Amino acid sequence: MKPPCLTNWAVAVGKLLGVVTFLITMVAPLLIFEAIALSGSNPPMSPAIPLLGHFGLILLAAAILSLGMFISSLTDSTILSAVLTFGLVLLLLFVDLIAKSIGGPVGEALGHLSLLKHYNTFIQGIFDTSAIILFASYIFLGIFLTAQSIDALRFQRQ
């Protein structure tokens, strides 16, 4: 009996879910410590702000990890994929600075791609759906490109 084949999408989504689950287990204890610290704060602070900040952190990390997963699928070298992912993350985090120096409609369009700008809205306690859409787009793009890269690799081996 032949075992069922996993699709490329299942491999990519499973890998991302595994890494994001690991990240959430590392961030979860921070919520407990923050709840203890905020319970004694004067004036009292709404718990929505730290929760939104952690939600934004998880979305930011998932977007970066999905793009890093794609770059990792392109090469066999771990060091090369780490360096390329680091370069891409720096570019996406600071594309807002590049956009401000360019100016005009092109700079404004580039400014909307900034991960840091959209993450800052969550840190400030603002629930912004455009930030969620941006992070979801990066996550989907990373998963899609990873699945296509796996497919191309399987095609080359046949």
UniProtKB/TrEMBL annotation:
UniProtKB keywords: Membrane, Transmembrane, Transmembrane helix
Tree of life domain: Bacteria
Chain ranges passing through the membrane: 12-32, 52-72, 79-102, 122-147
Protein name, UniProt field: Putative ABC-2 type transport system permease protein
Naturally occurring in which organism (per UniProt): Anabaenopsis circularis NIES-21
Species classification: Bacteria, Bacillati, Cyanobacteriota, Cyanophyceae, Nostocales
